[in-house]
Every structure is written in structure tokens, then in C-alpha cells.
Amino acid sequence: MSYCVNCGVKLAASEKSCPLCHIEVINPAERKKQAEHPYPDNIEPLGENKFDRRGFAMLFAILLMIPALITLTINLLVNKTVSWSLITAGSLALLFVWFGLPLISKRVKFTLLLCLDIISVFAYLFLIEQITGSGSQWSLRLGLPITAAAGILIVGLQLVFVHKKVPLLTKLALILFSAGFLVFMIELFVTGFKIVSFWSVFVFIPCTMLGLAFLLIESRKNLKEFARRKLFF
Questions:
Q1: Which residue in 5, 81, 147, 159 has a CA-CA distance of 20 to 30 Å to 71?
Q2: Which sequence spans correspond to the domains of the chain?
């Protein structure tokens, strides 16, 4: 014989709920044993899966060597010498400098990697000039100053962005100013510092005006909030 825990009415053995207050009947004598916990009590922490940077860099280098060796072999078999295949090998080496070297070590500063990228680009341009045998020394007259100007601008932007908390719109403005200035310098290098066609102006003016527009939006709180809602940045 049992009684309802809520209202105290006497219950029959077959009752699943109280006929008066409809509270579920729970008989402790018939309660089943609690199921065992499906997980172990002592959970061993998993080891961290560290990214093997050097291993991936070596794998990347091996993959780049495949087309390089194939083109070198074809060049030797067909032309009995190594000539045009060096251009392919040089481009693949350039890719490794750009993307493979940063994987080797985290300790190498980004500025140093940028300098290596700039040097490698000029070296590749010089290699192309030597292989093609143009004899005009365009790599020194054009390749070197253009590469150096682009590299100085990129390094300067990187130093500003890293060492100072620059807002996004200000970053975009600085990038546009740098792009317009670089195009203007390219025209000077190509024409030998003699302005002839002013074709760079058609790039310099839009980049400058867009940069000023970004700076204006950044300086005006209402404009910035409106642009943030519309452009989701």
C-alpha cells in the first residue's frame, strides 16, 4: 500500500498517477539503477596538433621542383642546352621565396621577408633580361627602380599598419595614395623623367580622390556609421 506524496490519498498498486491530483506515482522500491556514465571519469587531455611549418615548406619546395625539373629536362633534350627553362625555374623559385620562406620560421620579421621578396623580384627580372639577350639593360633602367619604389611603399605601409592602430578606412586611403604615387613614378621611370602623355594622371586622380573620400568618412562619425551599416565593415 502506498500514498500520494502530494495529497496523501491511498493508492492502489496498479496506479501510475494519483486519481485525485494526477501526480505521477514514483515507487522508490521499483526505481531502476542509474545507468552507468558513458564517458570515463578521467579524461586525458589531447596533445596539441602543431602545424609542421618546416615540413610543409619542404613539401612545397618538392612540389615546385617537379615542373622545374620537367622543363629543364625538356630544354636539355630538345635544345641540348639550358635556356628558356630557367625562366620557369626562376618563377617557381620566386613562388618559394614568397610563400615557402615565411613557413620555415615564425621568428623572421615580416619586414625582412618583404625585402627578400623585393630582391627576388629584381633578380628574376635580371634573369629574364640575361636569357632573352636583349642587351638594353631594361632590368637596371626600369626593373630596379620600379621594384625598389614598390618595395619601399609596401615596407612603409607595413611599418605604419603594424606599429600604429590605423582604422580600416585610413588603411584603404593610404593604400590608394601609394598606388597612385607608384603609377606616377612608373611613368617617370619609363619616360626618363620626361612627362609626355600624363597617362599616370588618370590613375593618380581617382586614387587620390577615393583616398580623400575614405579619410572624410573616417573623420565623420555619422558618415562612418552610415557606411558601416550599408557596407557591413
A1: 147
A2: 165-233
